[in-house]
Amino acid sequence: MTARVTNQDSKTNRATAIPGAITRAEYIYLIILVIVCSIALGVRLYRLGSFPANLMADEADNLGVIYTILAHSGPGPFGLDWKPSPAFSMWVASIFVYFAKNDLLGLRLPSALFSMLALPITYLLYRRYIHPVAAILALTLMSFSVWYLNFSRSGWENINVVLITSLALLLLHKALEKKQWKWWILTGFTASLGLYSYFSGRAILLSLIAYTPIAILLHRKQVTRIVAGYGLLIITAIALFIPQLPSIAADPARFNIRAERVSVLNAADDGYFGHYGIGSILLYQIQRNARFFFDGSVMGGPAYSPPEQPLKDTRPRYSPFGKPLLDPAAALLFALGMILSLFCLRNSALWWVALLVPWFFTQVLSINTPDAARGIGMIPSIYFFVGLALDKIIAVFKNKKARSVAIVISTFIVASVSIWNTIEYFNWASSPEFLEAREPAVPLSQFEQWSKVQQQRAQEHLPPLTVTEWKEIHGDN
């Protein structure tokens, strides 16, 4: 699992290498990466505290919990928040809210920063497999995709899963390559962060474990070390999650209620869109969720709602309704990358595992999918295959001049698509349909009043008002 370096790159590196310093080529790639990250951060910070133009219920409930934390009346770092999910993420977000003087900007800022921080981490990961140019182009498409942008500008912790996933996979590489136990411990530590994060973060540890037999197969001469390392990884992740267990044990039914509500398996007896029985439902879910990368029509029709639990269809607030998850350019490259990866399965096996485990866990096994929020952990894997396709396309051109032309054309196309996607995001996020999909929500014209009331309730050790309760008292004006 090493990065592919062309002969020309090798010559350039040898010619310009300075002991103790990065090469000229690496320096140029680093500058380009910094530029991409800077633009990505700027797009995320632009009007972050006022756009989108309302505070949707998930954001409002998160901020309400944060106010209780700041008032010392809320859950501890190992308690449970309103979802219920580990409150650790809310404690992290509370730092930003505190310094932003309780403003909406502070709530959304962690998502913007962590989504940008994921870019250099993911670059280091991609760089082990593909050329730096292909890696940067793939990350550019990822960074400015409507999907990633939407959650990068949201007061929700689910975007953290992208950063944690990339970091865990990068550390796993180190653990498999180095004969040092610290890398296994660090990988386990990162996996535990997934357990403390958004629900989809639980799939990170599952992905790492699922890769175990493949890791053993690829490192046959180090079976004992690999098995021991994985044992250390799992023990570390579980040990670091132990502080959370008392709050779970105090009310296990409450902790598991969301997982039970969204489980598609619970619909086997009553039926799910005309399908009955686990086998039939799973087959339906597999084909439905596989199509969504390329075909937005699978989002059409009504949402499923369990008889005992009427649910609002929240999917239109997560991605443009009726459109595929990926833009046409990314979708084409994603499909091509997956096909090409079959010819180098030894190097791409980890990415297939990192894609299929969260896809099956968060999409196939849950109701009302495709769901862009639950599937957030697939992003690093999806854009790896995009990068792999770009890498192979560029590598086709053996002549230096032809390759340079291919790189220029690819860069132009990626830049154009990224600009188009950014415009599409802002147009979509300002549309009446999007704002309506975010309901129930607090209009930003009421935010200051809403914030004062919630902070006062937190000081008085009263639970935050839900958005529905707020609307019943104050209406929409």
TrEMBL record:
Keywords: Cell membrane, Glycosyltransferase, Membrane, Transferase, Transmembrane, Transmembrane helix
Topological category with respect to the lipid bilayer: Multi-pass membrane protein
An example Gene Ontology CC term for this record: plasma membrane
Domain of life: Bacteria
TM region positions: 27-46, 82-100, 107-126, 132-151, 158-176, 226-245, 325-344, 349-366, 372-390, 402-423
Domain Glycosyltransferase RgtA/B/C/D-like positions: 86-245
Annotated compartments: Cell membrane
Molecular function GO terms recorded: pentosyltransferase activity
An example Gene Ontology biological process: response to iron(III) ion
InterPro entries xref list: LipidA_mod_glycosyltrf_83, RgtA/B/C-like
Name of the featured protein: Glycosyltransferase RgtA/B/C/D-like domain-containing protein
